[in-house]
Amino acid sequence: MMIDSGLADISRALADGSISSVELTQDYLKRIAAENTDLNAYITVCDELALAQAKAADEKRSNGNAGVFTGIPIAHKDLFCTNGVRTSCGSRMLDNFIAPYDAFIVERFNEAGAVTLGKTNMDEFAMGSSNETSFYGPVKNPWDRTRVPGGSSGGSAAAVAGRLCAGATATDTGGSIRQPASFTGITGLKPTYGRVSRWGMVAFASSLDQAGTMTQTAEDAAMMLNVMAGTDVKDSTCSNAPVEDYTANLDKPLDGLRIGIPVEHFSDGLDSEVEKAIRAAIAEFEKLGAVVKEVNLDNSHLSVSAYYVIAPAEASANLSRYDGVRYGYRCDNPVDLEDMYKRTRSEGFGAEVKRRIMVGTYALSAGYYDAYYIKAQKIRRLIKNDFQKAFEEVDVIMGPTSPHTAFPIGSKNDDPVTMYLEDIYTIAVNLAGLPGLSIPAGLVNNLPVGLQIVGKDFAESQLLNVAHKFQQVTDWHTRQPG
Amino acid sequence: MEWETVIGLEVHVQLSTASKLFSGTSTAFGAEPNTQANIYDLAMPGTLPVLNQEALRMAVKFGLAIDAEIGKKSVFDRKNYFYPDLPKGYQTSQLDFPTVGKGELVIDMEDGSHKTIGVTRAHMEEDAGKSLHEDFHGKTGIDLNRAGTPLLEIVSEPDIRSAKEAVAYLKKLHSMILYLGISDGDMSQGSMRCDANVSVRPKGTTELGTRTEIKNINSFRFVEKAINIEVERQIDIIEDGGRIIQETRLYDSERNETRSMRSKEVANDYRYFPEPDLLPVVIDDAFIESVRETLPELPDIKRARFQEQYGLSEYDAMVLAADLATANYFEEVVAGCDDAKLSANWVMGDLQAVLNKNETPISQSPVAAKDLAGLISRIKDNTISSKIAKTVFEAMLAGEGDADAIIESKGLKQVTDTGAIEAMVDEVIANNPDQVQQYKDGKEQVIGFFVGQVMKASQGKANPGQVNQMLKEKLSS
User: N or C: lower Cβ tally within 10 Å for chain B?
Assistant: First the structure.
């Protein structure tokens, strides 16, 4: 079916008239209606909006005004504000929140003529690595519905992997695009911090959050990045770096590409079967002409700790606005201001969110700020330096995205820290602000394995090129569940 | 026991930018509640701050005017606390790296002396919204129009030693910010707010006593009263053997006392950290120079120039230069009549009296500068006497026209014709032989009687100087 295809193929099919946007959209909506109750990938399905957009897209096409993205149905992670449509961030706190404006990237996709199928499920306020903390219930991994799809962008991952959309937007703060991409056998791209505007992207950890893509292929990711990347005066942390056509260099040969393999990412804790798959994938690059060497990221072992001070600290302030005063959830019959604050926030937030707010508040408090927050920021600088040093000798860094494949739903709920360690290979990339992607690189017990590729600042073009060349000589990215 | 008062002032000045510090919402005063608050001001999810460049320029302008260090790299920080008039649950402010560093302000005391007061720093921050308790029973109304308005918080060194010095500091600061055009500095409307940190110590000692912070002072007069009453309170406590508790106190102007805010305030740990949604603000020398070029002639420079250029006394120069609008008005009058002394007297005297009585600012003066110049010109060229001029001025205030028109229509031209005056003088002398005799007997002050009689006969129009001269001549012969 056409709706099993990726963005590039769909774009071509729409262009040559073999299918209309309305037909495509109807097919997706039918499949969503059939599958979503079980998979729970979507929190909100936008039937009417999608069909209206599809109709408009088809009209535009018949007037000869269609572009590359016109009429293509995608999904947005429910962390992005969509004007007139519920934006819940996977939380009871925003269950009743209808966004009064569009996020920058939503505006961009709307301008490009995309069709919004709906808002995808996610860990509450992007805090999680399994999509189990959502107010709307866990998302199931299409490869094995007893297992998690990863998080926090589990809904977007499951929607793409389950072919409930052609591509989806998502966000990544510590691995929330890459890890679910790894668990669900799809391509997940986190651009360089500042490459994509955060306007309208509900903040979790402001210095780490970045918007990115979930697609079947690297080519599809390049198509989406072309729409999303760019400068935005409304985001003071958004870069003015020139935007390229990310599809232009996909086919560049990889001869002489220098690949770095961090010693620290191939040690204890990495599942031996996953390691085998990763090493086999890396060998493919050597066949393509790349040269592989070991590199050291000496402060790797500190990255999770540093992250779990900085991210909660920023989150503790970012989430202060959810107080029941102006919008969102408010507890019933508050007796006074303090009661309203306490019950609104106790009832509106789930356990993991409350946990991180408390940790973050503690790390910023008088007497602890220097020991925790400042110290973590210093470690962050060291981690960035590690990458800079490695990139003096190599062009890209590769390794496993995750230490293992998707785990069963409910299996890591007893100890938050074991959940935090899910992001052990991905977190340092956010701390350093670098671009990273995960591509399907193997199967272990019929569960996907992801290869993580990390690049220098604003090297998205190179990353997508490297991934695309791999996808030309392998077929992991074409495998589907069941 | 002799006591010394140590005062530091924290003044919040609302910058008169067209839009807020981090959003494009209008800052215009007087709108319906909650009509000037956009999605950023309401702290909607996903919104982000963008620094208002004009606010930055105004802050730097202020720094240059007080000869302060300008922070070439300044950083915004989040100050975290919960209150319904603070939508984000944090205020974006500046902690360790403010835009303006150490500077100084020279204040002018009533006795003509000057004192230099150090300014520790000045930084930008967002204003909170307004909490309205009075109109809502058992509830508080929140108006977020003000939330996000740019404030410049100016902190003085604890160099102030009396309530009068504090007032002088505020007046100078007020004058300065109006000169710079960065705020309308209206304490009654809250565009300039003052908190006073007050402590006492035995005279001659150097260690600082425990200070209290006094809030809710909304006029210069109340600053003086609040400080004085708090100093009294502190001295009383210490002399009774007690200790001062470091706390925030509210000034109650009706009872003229300060009250502890302790019950309302839980000790707040603001958990400051650098604002991750904003980059450090980096400015270079070229930027600073471009702001320096927009500095007006500052009050103290203008005062010196007034003394030099117009030969005014230091006091007159200070009064005229204190307010930029008054200074400009004064100079326009001088340009029109070429007499600085008369201009100064009329502006500071007759005109100011009328403006004060009607609480009118000079910008809305019922008599325009050029028209006042016209009136003074007629005094100078002897068309009218100073006394008649006051009558003409009254008529000008009433809107009866300019000086020439009024002199004409009321026939107020001074009589300077020697023959005409002589005729009146002769008549008065002839009609008052007793007083003539008194004068000849040595009672010289009786000449005032004769002058009065001639002025009456001439309906005030005879030139007093000539009348005096002629009477002396005739009575002495």
Answer: C
- Look up the pTM and report it: 0.90
> Tens digits of per-residue pLDDT, A275-304?
999 999 999 999 999 999 999 999 999 999
> A61 in a domain, yes or no?
yes
B95 has a chain A CB within 8 A of its CB: no
Residue B52 in this model has a pLDDT that exceeds 50: yes
Taking 70 as the threshold, does the pLDDT of residue B264 lie above it?
A: no
Question: In chain B, what residues touch A373 (CB-CB under 8 Å)?
Answer: 273
* Total beta-carbon pairs less than 8 A apart between chain A and chain B: 96
* Spatial distance between the Cα atoms of A198 and A327, rounded to a whole number of angstroms: 21
User: Which of B19, B265, B269, B277 is the best residue to mutate to test the A interface, defined by the most A CB atoms within 10 Å of its own CB?
Assistant: B277
List B107's β-bridge partners, or say none. B115
The span from the CA of A217 to the CA of A6, in Å, is 7
**Contact status of B278 with chain A (Cβ, < 8 Å):** yes
pLDDT higher than threshold 80 for residue A222: yes
**Of B39, B49, B82, Cβ closest to residue A323:** B82
Number of domains in chain A: 1
Chain B, 60 to 89: residues with Cβ < 8 Å from chain A are 78, 80, 82, 84, 87-89
> Which ipTM value was assigned to this complex?
0.96
Residue A273 lies in a domain: no
H runs (alpha helix) in B105-204: 163-180
With helix as H, strand as E and coil as C, how does A83-127 read?
A: CCEECCCCCHHHCCCECCCCCHHHHHHHHCCCEEEEEECCCHHHC
Task: pLDDT band for B262, please (50, 70, 90 cuts).
Answer: low
Q: Average per-residue pLDDT in chain A?
A: 97
Q: Could you count the other beta carbons within 10 Å of the beta carbon of residue B399?
A: 8
Mean pLDDT over A458-464 rounds to 98
Give the mean pLDDT of chain B.
92
Note the pLDDT tens digit of each residue in B355-404. Answer: 999 989 899 999 999 999 999 999 998 888 888 899 999 999 999 989 99
When CB atoms are compared, the residue of A202, A235, A317 closest to B78 is: A317
Please count the other Cβ atoms lying within 10 Å of the Cβ belonging to residue A287.
9
Q: Please give the Cα distance from A482 to A443 (Å, whole number).
A: 13
Domain spans of chain B? 3-291, 299-410, 418-476
- Shortest CB distance from A237 goes to which of B43, B87, B279? B279
CB contact A313 to B (< 8 Å): yes
Do A101 and B50 make contact, defined as CB atoms within 8 angstroms?
no
Q: What are phi and psi of B13, to 5 degrees?
A: -110, 125
- A323 in contact with B at a CB cutoff of 8 Å? yes
Whether A418 is in a domain gets the answer: yes
Domain B418-476 has CATH 3.90.960.10: no
Interface test with B, best of A86, A314, A321, A339 (most B CBs within 10 A): A321
Please check whether residue A106 lies inside any domain of the structure.
yes
Residue partners of B296: CB distance under 8 A and separation at least 6: B179, B180, B181, B324
Give the domain CATH number at A172: 3.90.1300.10
Token pair of A69, please?
A: 């993205």
Angle at B312 between CA B310 and CA B315, to 5 degrees: 150
Residue-number span of the structural domain to which A174 is assigned: 2-256+396-478
User: If pLDDT is split at 50, 70 and 90, which confidence band does B439 have?
Assistant: confident
- Give the catalytic positions of A in this structure: 77, 152, 176
- Best of A349, A364, A369, A373 to disrupt the B interface by mutation (most B CBs within 10 Å)? A364
